[in-house]
Design goal:
The protein has helices at residues 13-25, 63-71, 90-96, 131-140, 164-183, 193-204, 212-218; strands at 3-9, 32-37, 49-52, 76-80, 85-86, 104-106, 154-158, 208-210, 222-223. By secondary structure, the chain is an alpha/beta fold. It has a 7-stranded mixed beta sheet, with helices on both faces. Strands 5-9 form a two-stranded antiparallel ribbon. Helix 5 runs antiparallel to helix 6 (193-204).
């Protein structure tokens, strides 16, 4: 089974430096690495596959564009946040040899994020003025409040179990959230992509799993820079 690892890198220099560190750490591992970035020349000296990110107004949710590109060439896509930290690179080999038997596999929720929100229902859509997004959640998946608020700093997608409806639903929710963010004058749009993944997975029936075994395997060696 062919696996590709992806990083979505734009914005502050620290994201480029942290991505560069991870690429260097994985230089002796036999895996294709993809980088969606607005500065492809930064990675010209590395053996990675760069994808030019041409969008003027950036969106966090465009990481799914990277996933689709990777899945065009691989069976499994592993997305790791640009600011995630690999403390022991041996964990990558463990990740590559793990069994992924769902459309979407994730390891963490926003309970461990500074937001401290384990379920989507714990998030105040009213305080955040996300009214249009909440209305769409209610319409397409009324039980959305009981879904995990996925923290997607590490997420795996398996092409075998995915379908077009998953990606179409994700993009619809992304568009709604970007509209909300644009109205609020956010510099970067589309935050909340873990919520879109959770709802899109249920609506499209692709299969989604929080893999606690995988979390225990990686928790001390691959961590988010934002873990509280």
């Amino acid at each position: 089974m062919k696996i590709g690892i992806g990083f979505f890198c734009f914005g502050d220099d620290r994201y480029f430096k942290m991505t560069e560190v991870k690429i260097s750490q994985m230089s002796n591992i036999d895996v294709d690495i993809y980088v969606l970035t607005d500065n492809i020349t930064y990675f010209k000296d590395y053996s990675v596959k760069t994808i030019n990110y041409l969008r003027y107004v950036k969106s966090y949710a465009d990481k799914m564009y990277l996933a689709k590109h990777i899945l065009n060439h691989n069976d499994i896509c592993i997305l790791i946040d640009a600011d995630a930290i690999i403390k022991d690179v041996n964990v990558i080999n463990q990740i590559l040899n793990h069994n992924y038997n769902q459309g979407v596999t994730y390891i963490d929720t926003l309970e461990n994020h500074p937001w401290n929100k384990p379920k989507i229902g714990d998030i105040s859509f009213e305080n955040n003025k996300w009214f249009e997004l909440e209305d769409k959640f209610k319409k397409i998946y009324p039980d959305y409040k009981n879904l995990d608020a996925i923290w997607e700093y590490f997420i795996v997608l398996n092409k075998k179990y995915l379908n077009d409806y998953f990606f179409a639903t994700f993009e619809m929710l992304q568009n709604i959230k970007e509209y909300i963010d644009f109205k609020q004058n956010k510099k970067i749009l589309g935050a909340g992509e873990g919520l879109f993944i959770a709802v899109a997975s249920m609506v499209s029936n692709v299969g989604i799993k929080r893999d606690t075994e995988l979390f225990e395997m990686v928790k001390d060696n691959l961590i988010s820079n934002n873990r509280r």
